[in-house]
């Protein structure tokens, strides 16, 4: 694993490579979230100002640049994917009854659920309105498939709350809720640049595996990082009744009394009868956190493998480094 210092230095180098384009995406995002209805504009600005890594538009830009694309389409689509991502966060916070997002009050705590669900819907529609400007039906097909997968993933997750699920079910949820968007970003970069179909598929596989690694690391950090680092309460997934890979791994091996501890948290949706430290002790006892981290590294390796035979370039090296960034991050 790279040290945080080396990883941080490389991150700055990669984002410097994209600085002008990412700033253009940010401006586009700001313009596109302005509505004649003040509440939508205010909610949109609140969400945009919350920041984030902008890793999704960065992946789209890198994928387009890999094939020497330099038009405005990638900027517009970068804003589109970030808008879709933002819409999903708004809806997720409402469903999860979240109070904070990235260390700030979640939008629904300020504007209420009704306004926020409509603002999320507006963001979805606005993202498609901008995507239409590309006059490319393939782009619309990919975006429609993406949004359907994400909505289906959210519904499937709601049905499984409080229950122990299989690893296959969990990976299907990760694919729908996270990896599908990563894969769409890299695929859109290939499409807008006119890349050959086989290269488009390689980039799509790269994005999916990267997204799987990203979410697996996110799930481990949710259990192990501090609230200051996360910008939200620790172990939010367990508090919301969600069993992630480390928990599923432990449940498959632990003693009945340990299984009962985990199930108690999933049932109560809080650390009332059981403490966070008790759950961590169970997960550490069975190497479950390490198992989830190892699986994240396997997905990161698959992401690199998917594109390893594409021509070498500065952009290619940035794409090959991204999986390392994703698995070694600390927040």
Structure explained in plain terms:
By secondary structure, the protein is mostly helical. The protein has a single domain (4-323), classed as Farnesyl Diphosphate Synthase (Orthogonal Bundle). The chain contains 17 helices and 2 strands. β1 (100-101) and β2 (104-105) form a beta hairpin. α4 crosses α9, α5 (73-96) packs antiparallel against α7 (113-131) and α10 runs antiparallel to α16. The radius of gyration is 20 Å and the shape is globular.
Quaternary structure annotation: single chain
Q: Tell me, what's the shape? A: globular
The succession of helices and strands, N to C, reads HHHHHEEHHHHHHHHHHHH
Proportion of β residues?
Answer: under 5%
Average pLDDT number: 92
Number of strands: 2
SS summary, helix count? 17
Secondary structure topology:
Elements: H1 4-17, H2 19-32, H3 38-49, H4 55-65, H5 73-96, E1 100-101, E2 104-105, H6 107-111, H7 113-131, H8 137-160, H9 167-192, H10 197-224, H11 227-230, H12 236-239, H13 245-251, H14 256-268, H15 276-285, H16 288-307, H17 314-328
Antiparallel strand pairs: 1-2
What features would you highlight for this structure?
about 325 residues; mainly alpha; Farnesyl Diphosphate Synthase; two-stranded antiparallel ribbon; globular; disordered N terminus
């Amino acid at each position: 694993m790279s040290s945080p210092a080396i990883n941080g230095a490389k991150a700055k180098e990669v984002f410097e490579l994209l600085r002008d384009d990412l700033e253009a995406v940010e401006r586009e995002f700001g313009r596109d979230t302005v509505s004649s209805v003040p509440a939508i504009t205010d909610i949109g600005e609140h969400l945009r100002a919350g920041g984030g890594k902008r890793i999704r538009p960065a992946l789209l830009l890198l994928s387009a640049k890999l094939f020497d694309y330099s038009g405005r389409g990638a900027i517009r689509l970068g804003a589109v994917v970030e808008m879709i991502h933002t819409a999903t966060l708004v809806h997720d916070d409402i469903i999860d009854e979240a109070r904070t997002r990235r260390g700030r009050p979640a939008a629904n705590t300020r504007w209420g659920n009704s306004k926020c669900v409509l603002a999320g819907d507006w963001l979805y529609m606005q993202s498609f309105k901008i995507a239409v400007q590309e006059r490319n039906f393939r782009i619309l097909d990919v975006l429609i498939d993406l949004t359907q997968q994400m909505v289906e993933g959210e519904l499937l997750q709601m049905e499984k709350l409080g229950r122990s699920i299989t690893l296959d079910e969990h990976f299907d949820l990760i694919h729908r809720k996270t990896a599908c968007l990563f894969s769409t970003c890299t695929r859109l970069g290939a499409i807008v640049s006119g890349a050959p179909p086989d290269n488009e598929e390689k980039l799509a596989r790269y994005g999916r595996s990267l997204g799987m690694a990203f979410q697996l690391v996110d799930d481990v950090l949710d259990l192990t990082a501090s609230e200051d680092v996360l910008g939200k309460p620790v172990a939010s997934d367990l508090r919301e009744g969600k069993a992630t890979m480390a928990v599923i791994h432990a449940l498959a091996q632990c003693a009945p009394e340990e299984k009962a501890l985990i199930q108690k948290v999933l049932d109560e949706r809080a650390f009332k009868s059981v403490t966070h430290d008790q759950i961590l002790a169970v997960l550490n006892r069975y190497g479950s956190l390490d198992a989830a981290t190892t699986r994240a590294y396997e997905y990161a390796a698959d992401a690199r493998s998917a594109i390893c035979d594409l021509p070498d370039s500065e952009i290619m090296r940035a794409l090959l480094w991204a999986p390392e960034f994703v698995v070694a991050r600390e927040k």
